[in-house]
């Protein structure tokens, strides 16, 4: 029992700690926007209590006085109708306004959390599964909303209705008042009894919610691979196991809830039995009238309801505590530094890497002592075996991550001195895995250059060799591409991504295997047009295909995170080192294929 009490104290402490957190105040602060609506709900809740009190008082008068047919009886009956109608009306309005507050708060909170997620660094998202964020946006926020909307409101009105009902019953008879007042707090015992077990189960339930999101996300995103590899059966049986766990967990929780409800209801029902027994004796002794007893019966549940609600609030606090910690962690994370810093001057900059070192995880070096220089307007090709660190160099240039040692400079100025928005506005990238949003072809080309005119979009499509296939689409530029561009071929997607990069008119262009999905003819057209749209830009080309590297001014051969060789393609070929070896193997590979 001592351990249970200790755990209870810990739980209360952790809830108190949560309530004091900055993220909690940010989310709760949102409710401040709806002060007016909250006030209306509070008044309506009090209206419901007032209707109940007036209804009980009408009962008391009716049964105490037992008036014969006539004005008083009809008056009391009219009061019955009026107070019942009043209770129903207040109840209805309270529900409607509660839902209005609820809907507003939950959507605004979701907006706040989503905005915060977009402000966090890419490293945060790369280290998490997207199901974690879904769990935050749906599961955890729902629990949080339940607390912020319903429970906070109840916590405000419950004391008022408990005190007013208690005082009223005291005036009926102190003994009946006392019974009503004692019955309420006794119900809280039920929470103490099951709290410990329930808390563990609820934390597990939250984790399980994450697992469900995880499996659903993986299945839906990997549908093509599932079908191609005939994984339907395996996926179904894995998800069945998750669902079986879920059923066991939910049933265990519901059983505990039912047990708690039973324990909670015992004092209430005992209150009825004792109250009616004592009341009947007092009535027989002439100490109270029949009306007093009827008023007691009518109101006892109103006196105990606040405590029944507190039991529910404790339950919802447990849910909030299980998920809120993660939600608040995200809300309190420092967003990517987007202010401060200088803007990148117009024109193509030079890029310098000076002994740059980097590790995604402690102890696993990905880049070490990487140094190279690309003069303004020149093209550098990053070449090397898979996993050598080429894409990581680009991520550092975007400032998605910061180097753990060394410096990256643009025009001789350290990268961190530039404001991120200005830096990224000057970078255009075509990567190997193209992401298209579910919109029209035109919208997808205009991403990052929303104000571009129709003529510019068309020109970008022309230079990226996309125009011909776009014209063949049913609605040309207005054709929808489907989720992730599912209705287009890989090569078509890549060409749209190239058009998108062209339209951005950036001063640094990053081409990460930009033509890997293009046929030889389209690729050579792309290479010749590259000079036209990116001639003045500083270009970083990541390529395995030597056809893409041929025209580079400078080659950096990266292997195991280190620069093995650097120089012009001709120099490196003459030296006959790793690059020349790579080139030869590539030629044989291209010949064989
Ligand atoms: N987000 C990440 N978290 C942890 N490790 C990562 C992450 N991204 C890449 N790595 C690791 O960093 C190393 C370099 O990866 P990178 O993608 O830069 O190589 P690459 O040369 O571009 O490879 P490829 O030619 O196959 O695209 C690899 O060992 C990879 O496993």
Task: Please describe the structure with a list of short key phrases separated by commas or semicolons.
593 residues; transport; P-loop_NTPase; single chain; disordered N terminus; ATP-binding; 21 helices; Rossmann fold; 6-stranded mixed beta sheet; ABC-type oligopeptide transporter activity; ABC transporter transmembrane region fold; binds adenosine-5'-triphosphate
Largest sheet properties: 6 strands, mixed
Count of spatially separate domains: 3
CATH topology group of the largest domain: ABC transporter transmembrane region fold
Overall pLDDT score: 82
What does the radius of gyration come to? Answer: 35 Å
CATH class of the largest domain: Mainly Alpha
- Widest sheet: strand order? 6-7-8-3-9-10
Number of beta strands: 10
Q: Name the beta content range.
A: 5-15%
Which hetero ligands occur in this complex?
adenosine-5'-triphosphate
Membrane topology: Multi-pass membrane protein
Organism: Paenibacillus ginsengarvi
Protein name: ABC transporter ATP-binding protein
GO molecular function, one term: ATP binding
Summarize the structure.
Residues 39-319 form the ABC transmembrane type-1 domain. With 593 residues, the protein is an alpha/beta fold.
Care to describe what's here?
By secondary structure, the chain is an alpha/beta fold. The chain has three domains: 11-332, Up-down Bundle (ABC transporter transmembrane region fold); 339-426 and 507-593, P-loop containing nucleotide triphosphate hydrolases (Rossmann fold); 434-505, Rossmann fold (3-Layer(aba) Sandwich), CATH 3.40.50.300. Helix content is 67%, strand content 10%. It is built from 21 helices and ten strands. The radius of gyration is 35 Å and the shape is elongated. The chain binds adenosine-5'-triphosphate. Adenosine-5'-triphosphate (ATP) binds at residues 126, 360, 366, 386-392. Pfam families: ABC_membrane, ABC_tran. This is ABC transporter ATP-binding protein.
């Amino acid at each position: 029992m001592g351990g249970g009490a200790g755990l209870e104290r810990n739980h209360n402490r952790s809830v108190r700690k949560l309530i004091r957190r900055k993220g909690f105040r940010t989310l709760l602060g949102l409710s401040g926007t709806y002060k007016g609506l909250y006030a209306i709900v509070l008044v309506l809740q009090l209206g419901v209590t007032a209707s109940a009190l007036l209804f009980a008082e009408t009962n008391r008068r009716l049964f105490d006085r037992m008036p014969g047919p006539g004005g008083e009886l009809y008056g009391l009956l009219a009061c019955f109708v009026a107070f019942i109608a009043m209770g129903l009306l207040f109840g209805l309005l309270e529900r409607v306004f509660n839902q209005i507050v609820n809907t507003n708060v939950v959507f605004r909170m979701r907006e706040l959390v989503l905005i915060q997620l977009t402000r966090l660094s890419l490293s945060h998202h790369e280290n998490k599964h997207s199901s974690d964020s879904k769990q935050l946006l749906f599961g955890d926020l729902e629990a949080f909303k339940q607390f912020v909307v319903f429970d906070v409101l109840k916590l405000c009105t419950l004391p008022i209705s408990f005190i007013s009902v208690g005082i009223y019953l005291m005036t009926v008879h102190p003994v009946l008042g006392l019974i009503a007042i004692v019955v309420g707090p006794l119900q809280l015992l039920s929470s103490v009894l099951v709290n410990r077990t329930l808390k563990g189960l609820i934390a597990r339930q939250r984790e399980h919610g994450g697992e469900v999101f995880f499996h659903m996300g993986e299945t839906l995103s990997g549908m093509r691979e599932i079908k191609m590899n005939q994984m339907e059966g395996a996926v179904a049986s894995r998800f069945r196991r998750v669902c079986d766990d879920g059923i066991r967990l939910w049933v265990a929780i519901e059983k505990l809830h039912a047990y708690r409800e039973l324990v909670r209801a015992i004092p209430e029902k005992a209150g009825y039995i004792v109250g009616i027994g004592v009341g009947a004796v007092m009535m027989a002794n002439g100490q109270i009238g029949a009306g007093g007893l009827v008023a007691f019966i009518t109101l006892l549940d109103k006196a105990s309801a606040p405590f029944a609600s507190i039991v529910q609030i404790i339950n919802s606090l447990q849910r909030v505590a299980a998920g809120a910690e993660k939600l608040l962690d995200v809300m309190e994370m420092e967003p990517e530094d987007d202010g401060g810093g200088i803007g990148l001057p117009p024109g193509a900059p030079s890029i310098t890497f000076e002994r740059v070192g980097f590790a995604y995880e402690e102890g696993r070096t990905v880049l070490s002592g990487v140094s190279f220089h690309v003069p303004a307007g020149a093209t550098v090709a990053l070449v090397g075996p898979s996993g050598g660190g080429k894409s990581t160099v680009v991520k550092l240039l975007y400032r998605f991550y910061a180097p753990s040692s060394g410096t990256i400079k643009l025009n001789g100025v350290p990268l961190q001195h530039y404001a991120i928005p200005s830096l990224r506005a000057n970078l255009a990238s075509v990567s190997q895995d193209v992401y298209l949003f579910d919109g029209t072809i035109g919208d997808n080309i205009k991403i990052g250059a929303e104000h571009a005119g129709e003529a510019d979009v068309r020109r970008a499509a022309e230079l990226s060799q996309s125009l011909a296939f776009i014209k063949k689409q049913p609605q040309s530029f207005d054709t929808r591409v489907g989720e992730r561009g599912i209705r287009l071929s890989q090569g078509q997607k890549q060409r749209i991504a190239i058009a998108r990069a062209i339209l951005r008119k950036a001063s640094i262009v990053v081409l990460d295997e930009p033509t890997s999905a293009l046929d030889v003819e389209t690729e050579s057209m792309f290479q010749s047009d590259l000079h036209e749209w990116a001639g003045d830009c500083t270009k970083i080309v990541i390529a395995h295909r030597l056809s893409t590297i041929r025209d580079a001014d400078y080659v950096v051969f990266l292997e195991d995170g280190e620069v093995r060789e650097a120089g012009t393609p001709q120099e490196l070929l003459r030296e006959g080192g790793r690059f020349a070896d790579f080139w030869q193997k590539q030629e044989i590979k291209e010949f064989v294929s």
